[in-house]
Amino acid sequence: MDCIFCEIASKDAEAEVIFENENFVAFLDINPVNYGHTLVVPKKHFDNFLTIPTDDLSELTKITQYLAGAVKRALKADGFNIISNNGNSAGQSVFHFHYHIIPRYENDFHMRPRTIEYKQSEIELYRDKIKESVSKYEGLLNG
Ligand code: 5GP
Ligand code: ZN
Predict the structure, then answer these.
(1) Which of 17, 66, 112, 119 has a CA-to-CA distance to 74 between 20 and 30 Å?
(2) What is the pLDDT of residues 59-100, one digit of tens each?
(3) Which ligand 1 atom is at minimum distance from the Cα of 37?
(4) 86 lines ligand 1 (CB under 6 A)
(5) pLDDT tens-digit readout, 12-59
(6) pLDDT category, 110, cuts 50, 70, 90?
(7) Any catalytic annotation for residue 110?
(8) What is the 3-state secondary structure (H, E, C) of the chain?
């Protein structure tokens, strides 16, 4: 399979690595939103947030929390975004699951998506549609 993050994980492609252990690697994004924009990647290939097993996701999240603190302190950032794009429509361009850590500074925030409004009947409709889907799959959550 042609996957740039698999290639970086196996060292067949180069990257500016800031952290690595047996199962995960973190490196600088080549097209950063801000300097120090970091990607945290499982070495095993999973397409997205829905297909990564929960144990791997927990470990990835734990490492991302640790690295976000390190990035923030190192760059004296005021804050940071943790982002995961899932699917083409959401802006995913590398279909190997990863978290972005984006250091942020006061007044540099240009990423707030446009928002829309609900009528009361619409917000209830969307609540019901999603609740129905949640209860259908609740069994999966409880094992
Ligand atoms: P996505 O759009 O899938 O959420 O994020 C993929 C990210 O990977 C993008 O921000 C893009 O700049 C970065 N990227 C794509 N190819 C490479 C690469 O070869 N090396 C590095 N370091 N980053 C890459
Ligand atoms: Zn991959």
Answers:
(1) 112
(2) 999 999 999 999 999 999 999 999 999 999 999 999 999 999
(3) 10
(4) no
(5) 999 999 999 999 999 999 999 999 999 999 999 999 999 999 999 999
(6) confident
(7) no
(8) CCCHHHHHHCCCCCCCEEEECCCEEEEECCCCCCCCCEEEEECCCCCCCCCCCHHHHHHHHHHHHHHHHHHHHHHCCCEEEEECCCCHHHCCCCCCCCEEEEEECCCCCCCCCCCCCCCHHHHHHHHHHHHHHHHHHHHHHCC
